Amino acid sequence: MTDTDNRIRRVVVVGGGSSGWMAAATLATFVGRGAEVRLIESEEIGIIGVGEASVPHMRLFNAQVLGIREADFVTQTRGTFKLGIQFNDWARIGDSYIHGFGTIGRSLGPLPFHQFWLKLFQSGRVPGIGAYSLPTVAAPLHRFMTSSEQAPAGSPLADIAYGYHFDAGLYARYLRNLSERRGVTRIEGKVVDAVQRAGDGFIEAVVMESGERIEGDLFIDCSGFRGLLIEQVLKTGYEDWSEWLPCDRAMAVASESAGPLTPYTRSTARAAGWQWRIPLQHRVGNGYVYSSRYLSDDEAAATLLANLDGPALIDPRPLRFTAGRRRRFWNRNVVALGLAGGFMEPLESTSIHLVQSGLQRLLGLFPDLGFDPLLIDRFNRDSIFEYERIRDFLVLHYNATERDDTPFWNHCRTMAIPDTLRETVELFRLDGRYFRNGEDFFALPSWVQVMLGQRIVPRGYHPIVDEMPEDELASFVERVRQGLAKAVEAMPLHQDFIARYCKSADV
How far separated are the first and last CA of the chain, in Å rounded? Predict the structure, then answer.
């Protein structure tokens, strides 16, 4: 018989916002019957709320981990749907491409579709790769639908990959309500200190501004950039990645809605960084991520305000950050999530995903009071791998550019890049090959679309492609294109889909 006295009985989440309430909801759902879950947050401390867009993983997390109904989530957060990200002016001013979710074309034998397309593209016989992925065909036409159970097997409409745009503050409120229904206790106030156990430095309790002690067995640090427990108390250390990701500031502002609800995020390269546009049902989220070395805060705010679709609803809000990660995400009995664990700008909307993948990793490696180092080491190793591979993918956007019109882009174009990224780019540049590294979050379609979009065009293609007769090859590639075009014609407009499926009542 197993001795259950060694089980984690008290979980304390320090910090609210999306990260804190995601953690509370997840832990209440899976360990809440045997453990008390408490969350500490202060109404005086605002949430960052920069990331209001997701990758497709969020859909699975909401449904499978938290049991959230999609239509309810989108309605309550005044959300819209996202087929990918449109990148404007990144490789050259005037360039535009979409990094769409899901697959590209249809694999054949041992080769991915883009290898067959590549042979024809190099001889000028086919359009760009965007014509061969459902999201990249549908997004600029403002068409969207969720996967159809009525679609025949093999139809592109049977498996549509998409993420969301949503109001981060409303998502936190939604998760708070869910968490409290599942037994989470919310404690209002500020944490000002922590009590460490003699001998091993484990945290026994946090001390509130009021003097109250909140004791716990496991602490989840969701305190934002401060890293209240993971850094201020445990001195874990931070690995600075600003040599590769030079942006260290952001200006964020909401504006009035204008035009149709686009089913994609827009990222437009500016003189010293890039500007995001995220359409919600009730407003548009905007921001300028930039390097303070090349641009002042006033210049950034002026550029942002001059490039909005509609009037600003508030004054631009400044944010400061250093791209990088904690040296360890799990230290003693503290696990850091969200901004407390690290920060990579929202260029590919990975912030929410990193919290959710961290929570799923924690569930798989959930400890008892012994806190076996094997569990902690595995958590840290896998988390570091995920962060570093996403880092490489973001660095790719900056470094693979031909722009030399500003000092910022000159720096990005000529800077040294991680060896792991250099190998990936050189292999693709040779003949279009890409090999996924373990459980690298971004898979082949993402790397292929962004490398091609950033004008990394392979010199050749896989030699096996030549085994297929030319006319058969051309027919295969054209059938894929026509099939996708026909499928997209059957999709409703994004705005019409939302009106029928998940329109917010107060919009």
Answer: 56
Do 66 and 178 meet the contact criterion of CB atoms below 8 Å apart?
A: yes
Per residue in 366-413, pLDDT tens? 999 999 999 999 999 999 999 999 999 999 999 999 999 999 999 999
**HSE, side-chain direction, 13 A CA sphere, residue 133:** 27
Quote the pLDDT of residue 1: 40
Please give the Cα distance from 311 to 96 (Å, whole number): 25
> Does residue 486 have an active-site annotation?
no
Distant-in-sequence, close-in-space partners of 116: CB < 8 Å, separation ≥ 6: 105, 108, 465, 468, 473, 476, 477
Residue 269 CB partners (closer than 8 Å, separation 6+): 87, 88, 89, 90, 403, 409
Give phi and psi for 188, each to the nearest 5. Answer: -85, 135
Residues in the chain, overall count: 507
Q: Kindly report the number of other CB atoms within 10 A of residue 67's CB atom.
A: 11
| CB-side neighbour CA atoms (13 Å) of 464 | 10
Query: How far is it, in rounded angstroms, from Cα 210 to Cα 208?
Result: 5
Quote the Cα angle for 150-153-154, to 5°.
Answer: 125
Dist CA 20 CA 166 (whole Å)? 17
For the whole prediction, is pTM greater than 0.90? yes
The one catalytic residue among 82, 190, 235, 503: 82
Cα 293 off chain centre by:
26
CA 215 to each of CA 40, 164, 203, 336, 391: distance values in angstroms, whole numbers, following the listed order:
12, 37, 9, 18, 36
What is the sign of the dihedral through the CA atoms of 61, 66, 72 and 76? negative
